[in-house]
């Protein structure tokens, strides 16, 4: 099982405060942390911690943040030999405010903006060696769409996590194996004309919509809409929970697990990730997820 992630690699500058400030308001922060992040890198780390063989594709700058991020990925067991180090381009940064069990994020793309058509063309032959390619939208959308078309033409499974929110052309939706928006992203992609249930029924076992504390939903091939409830958590930081869910879901699908079991596993992993600070810092191992699933089964039993 070999997974490729093509996406963003950021340094997260995370400030904790009593709450998220209002427009025009100044608050005193409690602490500041510099933490490896980026949706692509986060999902790659989540997969590696869950036992997958993962290769990261993307760009960083030739600066101290870039060096630290490459070192962190290697430490986590993620392959980095296809990450391009760019001169005179800063590594991407995410400015994150955490308060009241929620967060706001502003991303400055930097080197992530250079994951362009030239870079995409340079990695296409390499991607043929992987069982699945996982993409997000923190790199240029033209690159994302081009790689989805390439994977579809070459029979490579693709998971697209359409975050940050942006329109996804319908022909691209047809070509991905799975599309995993949250509720807000789904509205931007499909409009407000249809309910969540109606959307899910249009794309059985392709469209997976995450709904925060209400869990995650998908339509089975038989037309039944399945909602996997969220695991209750003592929340410390929600940053990276969605990336953990996508990473865990990708690993389970690549292993051939049924979609219901894959979502139950992914939901549990995402919930566990919120109980520790930092996007990658809270991501659980396979042993931790399995232990929690077993504990829940014993409770039900």
UniProtKB/TrEMBL annotation:
Annotated K(+) binding sites: 237, 239, 273, 276, 278
Any one Gene Ontology BP term: D-ribose catabolic process
Pathway listed: Carbohydrate metabolism; D-ribose degradation; D-ribose 5-phosphate from beta-D-ribopyranose: step 2/2
Assigned keywords, A-Z: ATP-binding, Carbohydrate metabolism, Cytoplasm, Kinase, Magnesium, Metal-binding, Nucleotide-binding, Potassium, Transferase
Entries under Gene3D superfamilies matching the protein: 3.40.1190.20
Its EC number(s): 2.7.1.15
Subunit architecture: Homodimer.
Stored PANTHER family: RIBOKINASE (PTHR10584:SF166), SUGAR KINASE (PTHR10584)
Protein's UniProt name: Ribokinase
Source organism of the structure: Faecalimonas umbilicata
């Amino acid at each position: 099982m070999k997974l490729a992630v093509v996406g963003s690699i950021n340094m997260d500058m995370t400030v904790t405060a009593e709450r998220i400030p209002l427009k025009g308001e100044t608050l005193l922060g409690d602490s500041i942390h510099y933490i490896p992040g980026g949706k692509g890198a986060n999902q790659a780390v989540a997969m590696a911690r869950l036992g997958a063989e993962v290769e990261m594709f993307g760009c960083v700058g030739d600066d101290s943040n870039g060096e630290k991020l490459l070192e962190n990925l290697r430490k986590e067991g993620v392959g980095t030999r296809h990450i391009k180090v760019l001169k005179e381009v800063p590594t991407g940064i995410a400015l994150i405010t955490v308060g009241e069990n929620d967060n706001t994020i502003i991303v400055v793309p930097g080197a992530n903006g250079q994951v362009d058509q030239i870079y995409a063309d340079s990695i296409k032959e390499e991607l043929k060696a992987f069982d699945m390619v996982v993409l997000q939208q923190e790199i240029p959308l033209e690159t994302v769409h081009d790689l989805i078309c390439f994977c579809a033409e070459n029979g490579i499974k693709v998971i697209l996590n359409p975050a940050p929110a942006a329109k996804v052309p319908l022909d691209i939706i047809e070509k991905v194996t799975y599309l995993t928006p949250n509720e807000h992203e789904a509205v931007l992609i499909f409009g407000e004309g249809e309910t969540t249930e109606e959307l899910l029924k249009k794309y059985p076992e392709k469209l997976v919509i995450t709904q925060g504390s209400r869990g995650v939903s998908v339509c089975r091939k038989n037309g039944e809409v399945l909602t996997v409830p969220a695991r209750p958590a003592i929340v410390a930081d929600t940053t990276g929970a969605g990336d953990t869910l996508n990473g865990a879901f990708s690993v389970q699908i690549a292993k051939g697990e049924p979609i219901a079991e894959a979502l139950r596993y992914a939901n549990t992993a995402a919930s566990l990730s919120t109980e520790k600070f930092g996007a990658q810092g809270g991501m659980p191992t396979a042993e931790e997820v399995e232990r929690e699933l077993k504990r829940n089964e014993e409770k039900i039993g």
